[in-house]
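sorry to bug you again but im stuck and you know this stuff better than me. what follows is a protein written twice so to speak, once as letters and once as structure tokens for the fold. mainly i need to know what kind of three dimensional shape the backbone takes. anything you notice is useful, everything is just below:
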Amino acid sequence: MTGDETDGAALEPPRAASERILAAFDFAAGAAEQDARHQEQLTSIVDALLEVMDAFDRVFAAVGDGAVPGKTGAAIARRIAALLDSLGVSSTTTVGSPVDLHTDTIVDVRDSAETDGVVLEVVTRGYEWDGRLHRRARVAVARNPRGEAR
């Protein structure tokens, strides 16, 4: 082997290495784009399931969950809630809890014997997803005109 052949062979690995690095970068960029697309699709699915849960809440408010359609609907709603829970999605606000302006939007204030700011009704449930707020709850809260707590 002559010195020229050794020099030529020594130049090949850096070029091959840079091609491998570029190929790895292209692969990682493609994988990141695919992950972003999957996250968008999952978000769309979760949002659609939350709309279904909202529809069940409206049905239960109208007919009650003890009625025959309500019993069937309640069973379906429980399965959807379990699916959402398995994805890390959970409801944020309950009736009787103090309003939390980080997770709740007040849509109505009602005179009540309850303490000011207590949630009287969850108009639309709010949800957290993996510990981060996904959708704010829409709530009706108490205003105690006498200033007395029950």
In short: The two ends are 96 Å apart (CA to CA). The helical segments are 3-63, 68-86.
